[in-house]
């Protein structure tokens, strides 16, 4: 049985597949978008950066920061387009 990659809820039917991740609904897919970003880096790098950020000992690497900004801009455009199509 599949589990939501964001909240861990069991998924019996349906859900939303995004890359290698499965989400129970659109809200979890949106909130879990950072998982797609994390997939672009080796797990050890993600773990190291998250730990350092959590401890307040460093800023994100330039590559990670650039990727995050690009992804956030892409999501903003997608949300704008989705909202425009609803009206």
Give a structural overview.
The protein is mainly alpha-helical. The protein has two domains: 32 residues; 48 residues. Helices cover 57% and strands 11% of the residues. It contains four helices and four strands, in the order ββββαααα. Strands 1-2 form a two-stranded antiparallel ribbon. It has a two-stranded antiparallel sheet with strand order 3-4. β1 and β2 form a beta hairpin. 9% of the residues are buried.
The total of beta strands comes to 4
Shape: flat
How many individual domains? 2
Q: Characterize the largest beta sheet: strand count, sense, and whether it forms a barrel.
A: 2 strands, antiparallel
Low-confidence stretches: none
Provide the descriptors you would attach to this structure in a database record.
87 residues; mainly alpha; two-stranded antiparallel ribbon; 4 helices
Topology:
Blueprint: E1 2-3, E2 10-11, E3 16-18, E4 21-23, H1 26-31, H2 33-38, H3 43-55, H4 62-86
Antiparallel strand pairs: 1-2, 3-4
How do you describe this structure in short?
The chain is mainly alpha-helical and 87 residues long. 57% of the residues lie in helices and 11% in strands.
